[in-house]
Amino acid sequence: MMELDARKLRILAKIVEAYIATGEPVGSKLIACLLGGEVSPATVRNDMAVLFEMGLLEQPHTSAGRVPSHLGLRVYLDRIMHTQPLTTQEKQEIEALFNFRNPDPDKLLEDAARALAGYTGCAAISTTINRRSLKVRRIEIIPATQRTAVILLILSNGMIKNRVCRVDFTLTPKIVEFFQNFANGMLGGKSVNEISQRFIHSVALSLDEYTEIFTPLLTAIYDLCREASDGPIYRSGTSNLLEYEELRRIANQLFRVINSREGVMDLIDRDNEGVRVSIGRENQKMELADSSVIISKYRIGDDSEGAIGLIGPIRMDYARLIPHLEYFSQMLGKLLSDTLDEQT
Question: Using CA atoms, how far apart are residues 302 and 85, in angstroms rounded to an integer?
Fold first, then answer.
């Protein structure tokens, strides 16, 4: 790619900013006006032609103006855009979103996704990952009916997971006490990452003639451990995407990715730190070819981390959303860390 001089960079910046604001193709007369008349429309038109040849602009219709390409947006983000520090008022607005203080970390994540979606007008996702030292503190079995039990998995960070499990035998008090003691003896104090399918299988076999009847309970405990290890995923604001005309025709495809656990985890690079922006075709999923994703990572205590992100059109207001999301994730990480410390 040929080197861009200062004037072409300014023109590209104005085109991107105008497109973000309106979602409409941009013409040379508007750009000349936005530049304060310093450059004539003819000069702007010539520079726009060069930017088009470089692949930084696209022409959506024969007689229309230009819009930035995904490559043009990437150049804008990497070389032109300047994010402004949040004002005191903006920080206070974000802090006000965290007035909720539910002691359940999962509820905090769910509320955070909802608050972020409402604040930004995008779809929001939140999850936690990399709980390397998360351990099983205790397992409790609570009979709901004669053949239905609620399994409580109490973790070392204070989090509680639960699942309803149906069995093929009557849950008498003696059987419940026996299995609860057995489960805590075999699994209590172990890292959730240690509790693999192979490990659960070996635990089940140690029950000898009772292996088959207790397998559903052990399988449910395994599923809860996996959920705790991978972290829950919360989504909010997917209907916000329908507000953007360019996303309506592909909304169903976007919803499928967002509602898929695998789809969301693919958006989160476990090796990446801080804020990462993926524009259009930079995303691994072809369903996101006309969307942008902003993911911000944050720390939770010493051994865990979380990620919160936004999904929206490629004409996101990056200069505004990136610092807002970064501060939002810092607040969420601090709140989760404080909550987990209190519960531990």
Answer: 28
